[in-house]
Amino acid sequence: MAKIIRIYPENPQENLINEVIKTLNNGGLIIYPSDTVYALGCNIFDIKAMEKLAQIKKQKLDKAQFSIICNDLSHLSDFTRPVDTSVFRFLKSHLPGPFTFILEASKGLPLAYKNHKTIGIRVPDHPIPQLIVEKLGHPIASTSIKDDDEIIEYSTDPELIAEKYDHLVDIVIDSGYGDNIASTIVDLTSGEPEVIRQGKGII
């Protein structure tokens, strides 16, 4: 059964964040809030956790397109090919924020991302995922939580989310109601921004 932990962005308790970190380091899966929708996350360096994440999404791991959640742009060079100055400035002017930026992947990607030519990078404007990544010491893999409802595309109520994913994840972070608009996906592989999916972020 998933453990529900109430962590609020105004005053995230360090001991609760540490519990989340311990779970991630032990190969657990978490559900966490962001500046857009609630999302599933795990340790990008734990291949078994990544496989579980893919199973939940009913995907094969080598085909899955999981974003990498960072707390700032310092991890960029670990996972992406070098970007030119104009692209870096563009990223810096929009992050943290409700965007997923597609960039050319480097060979330094974790095993689960092997053979990926591109990678989606997110820096949410939300203290909880930022704090998790900062304390973990490296980014996490992430995918949005979709709703079965045809009208409401994304689940917003953490209690209903916990009920649905009770036996699939280890921790659900309840941070109050989430948004129901996903991030805007922007392809930067050509050097020029191309909006692939319009979401919450405005370019």
Number of strands: 10
Uncertain ranges: none
> H/E element string?
EHEEHEHHEEHEHEEE
**Structural Rg:** 16 Å
* Large-scale geometry: globular
Strand order of the largest sheet: 1-8-2-3-7-4-6-5-9-10
Binned, the helix content reads 25-40%
Largest sheet, strands/sense/barrel: 10 strands, mixed
| Distance, first to last CA | 40 Å
Average per-residue pLDDT, rounded, comes to 93
Portion in strands = 15-25%
Enzyme class: transferase
Domain YrdC-like: 14-201
EC number: 2.7.7.87
Keywords: Nucleotidyltransferase, Transferase
Describe the protein in words.
This protein is an alpha/beta fold and 203 residues long. It has helices at 14-25, 47-56, 76-79, 85-94, 127-136, 158-164, and strands at residues 3-6, 30-32, 39-43, 67-69, 99-104, 118-122, 140-144, 171-174, 184-187, 194-197. It is built from six helices and ten strands, in the order βαββαβααββαβαβββ. Strands 1-8-2-3-7-4-6-5-9-10 form a ten-stranded mixed β-sheet, sandwiched between helices. The model has no long low-confidence stretch (mean pLDDT 93).
Write the topology of this structure:
Blueprint: E1 3-6, H1 14-25, E2 30-32, E3 39-43, H2 47-56, E4 67-69, H3 76-79, H4 85-94, E5 99-104, E6 118-122, H5 127-136, E7 140-144, H6 158-164, E8 171-174, E9 184-187, E10 194-197
Parallel strand pairs: 1-8, 2-8, 4-6, 5-9
Antiparallel strand pairs: 2-3, 3-7, 4-7, 5-6, 9-10
Give descriptors for this structure.
about 20% strand; about 25% helix; alpha/beta; ten-stranded mixed beta sheet; EC 2.7.7.87; single chain; nucleotidyltransferase; globular; L-threonylcarbamoyladenylate synthase; transferase
